[in-house]
Each structure stands twice: as C-alpha cells, then as structure tokens.
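Take a record:
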Amino acid sequence: MRSYYPSGREVGELTAGTWRVVDARGQVLGRLASKVAHILIGKHKPRYTPAVECGDPVIVINAREIRLTGKKLDQKVYRWHTGYPGGLKEIKARHLFERKPEQMVREAVLGMLPKNKLRKRRARKLRVYADDKHLHQAQQPQPMKFES
C-alpha cells in the first residue's frame, strides 16, 4: 500500500498557522528544543507533509530561566568558524548563557530541525526572548504547556 502525501496546494490552508507561546521557565534545554522543533516542522498536525512547510510559528519566552542537566553548563562548548585562517572560535555554555541565553535556545532548536531546503523557512518562524515580554501580541499567540 502506498503512502499518500498531499501536495502543497492541498496543505495551503495549514501554512498560515496559529502562533504559539512556550514558557521555558524551569524546562530542560534539550527536551524543550525537541518539542519546539516538532511544532515548527508541523508534525503535530494531522495533515503533516514532509516536503511542505506546514508548521506553526513559535515564541519562546523566559530563555534566561532554562535548565541544563549534569555538567553541561561547564563542559559544553559552542564552536563556529569565521571563515578566516585560524578563525575557529569557541565559547563555553556558561558564558553564552550569561550573555545571550536566547541564542543558546535558538541553536538547540535549529539543531533539531531537518537539514534540508525548508530549514531556513522554519527557522524564521522561531522567536526567542530572554524575558517574559515579547513583541507579538497582535498575532494573538496561543499558550502551550509542556510538562517539566
């Protein structure tokens, strides 16, 4: 029996999506990131199609109050390359968490998205804020509750 995947026109009504707000207070980083990626991809919808962008926009608030388990805060290292010779940079998770906690959450979520042509479009639907204030009240976001 063949699997049926609806085309982009058939899934068109799902592309608009309802905005979701996720409170990261007290959540473990990896568990929260996998759930947010699940929503961004659109797997929570009954008409999910792998080749069509049908996920919902997500706003993550209180990124400053996220938790890391074990010794990750001291041992985890974020690395990137500037493109210049000898341009490998790195920063420990503790320093990144103190300076830009929203970047830490964003990197975790984007790392859990599939590496394909839809990744950049899905990444644009993610908004992360360090505090509980966000700029998207006009979109009337629906709060989502995850078990901690």
Remarks:
- The chain is about 25% helix and 15% strand.
- The longest helix spans residues 29-41.
- Residues 12-68+100-143 form a domain with the Ribosomal Protein L13p; Chain: A; fold (CATH 3.90.1180.10).
- The chain has a mean pLDDT of 91.
